[in-house]
Design brief:
about 240 residues; alpha/beta; Rossmann fold; 2 domains; seven-stranded parallel sheet; globular
Length: about 240
């Protein structure tokens, strides 16, 4: 492919700008800017789906880019609905174009997945989905970074990776490697890492991992109760 110049960041977190997806996406975008690439205006998918005009701007922005980076959370081994909707819009738009030449051929498509859970297997399914999507669209797979236990980065509190300090060290190093490859027009390696030490889920500190899971479940239950929902409901068992 030709040397990439224009980079489009897509953020697929429903939390918008106050999200870990925004924090990691903005960090790699700044690295690419330092290497001479031209970042286009970042797009938050939840915002662009609100009107036909914004959707049209989104489709044109992807067409104009030489490289697309998608940063999004992971929900139950899959991407959020808003990301699925954006993928469907891009696929439909592609079908409307001339069948003699795919308009996205040669663009690099890279993904940063943020998973709240520390286990290694969680990102596997969604990465296969993203790879298949890239192939069907004619994108070149640009590599991926799967971040496990990403809630520790405190993106929902508006924190940047530089604000976090040593907790974000491994993530920042991986993003530097990704930017180094992408800036040369080459795919980066597919990487997965955990923000918290592996010993939290495997080893003498594994009880802490169990505590965090309990704490997370407790938080979901409180949110559900506040909205009048029952997390223990089993409607299909009746």
């Amino acid at each position: 492919m030709t040397h990439p110049k224009r980079v489009q960041l897509l953020v697929g977190s429903p939390r918008g700008k106050r999200s870990t997806s925004t924090a990691v996406g903005s960090y790699v975008l700044n690295l690419l800017k330092q290497k001479g690439l031209e970042p286009l205006a970042s797009l938050w998918i939840g915002h662009i789906l609100k009107s036909p005009e914004k959707i049209d701007e989104f489709l044109k922005a992807v067409e104009a880019a030489d490289m697309i980076i998608l940063a999004a959370p992971l929900y139950d081994d899959c991407q959020p609905y808003i990301v699925i909707k954006a993928m469907e819009l891009l696929a439909a738009h592609q079908r409307e174009q001339s069948t003699t030449q795919k308009r996205h051929d040669g663009k690099l498509f890279s993904v940063i997945v943020n998973c709240a859970f520390p286990e290694e297997h969680h990102p596997e399914t969604v990465l296969r989905i993203y790879r298949r999507f890239a192939k069907d669209m004619g994108f070149l797979w640009g590599g991926s970074l799967a971040i496990r236990a990403g809630e520790a980065l405190q993106g929902r509190q508006g924190k940047t990776l530089d604000d976090i300090g040593s907790m974000a060290k491994k993530v920042k190093e991986a993003l530097v490697r990704m930017a180094d490859s992408l800036s040369k027009g080459s795919p980066s390696a597919d990487e997965t890492l955990s923000v918290i030490p592996e010993s939290f889920s495997h080893g003498p500190l594994s009880f802490l991992g169990s505590f965090f899971i309990w704490l997370n479940n407790r938080g979901w239950a409180k949110q559900a109760k506040k909205r009048g929902e029952d997390v223990n409901a089993r409607p299909y068992m009746e």
